[in-house]
Design goal:
Layout (H helix, E strand, L loop, with lengths): L1 E6 L2 E5 L11 E3 L4 H9 L6 E12 L7 E20 L5 E3 L5 E3 L14 E17 L6 E15 L10 E14 L4 E14 L2
Parallel strand pairs: 3-5
Antiparallel strand pairs: 1-2, 4-11, 5-8, 6-7, 8-9, 10-11
Amino acid sequence: MLNCDYTGNTSYKFYNKCIIESEDINIVGEYPANKIEKALTCFADKDKWTEFYLPEIVDIPTQKPDMEGIVEVHSCVEIISQRVIKTPVVMGYTNTAGNFISGENIPNAECTNLTGRKLIIEGLLKQKVIYTADDDEQSLHSANFEIPFSTFIIIEKDTPLSQQFRITPYIEDIFVSRLSERSVFKNTTIFIKASKVC
């Protein structure tokens, strides 16, 4: 076992083997792949999307008993705000042959071009971890966590700053593992679709 102080003043016994093969955790809140595929096939010309993951280490509250094993995780995403902002644009550059390359034609490694507008989306990942207590009775307990997040989608350069979007979040995947008797690692993959509201 290792001792680790990973969040100011909390130190628990970490196990060398974090993932236990026999652990069968029920996950509630993931969208089936066919629902996300349908969201992608029902796109209008002005619809946009982004995808990101949210890793976190959370501690069981002090008033709760130590954890023997995780039974279930319930997850949902709540969108709390959206806004269109102005951002810098790539103006362009002159290559070695002396030709000017316009900024609109310079994508990054993800083939994304900066337009001067981004849709900022802020939300909460709400999760409940249900676990068995590390005692003789092995009673069930739960701990609730709310993790804030912020992400963005690059949108058209002529989008008004007052433009509103219908934001539809999907949870694609949840990975959860007990790190110690008091701490849990979770990684949630989130897909967000944004549709212009006329």
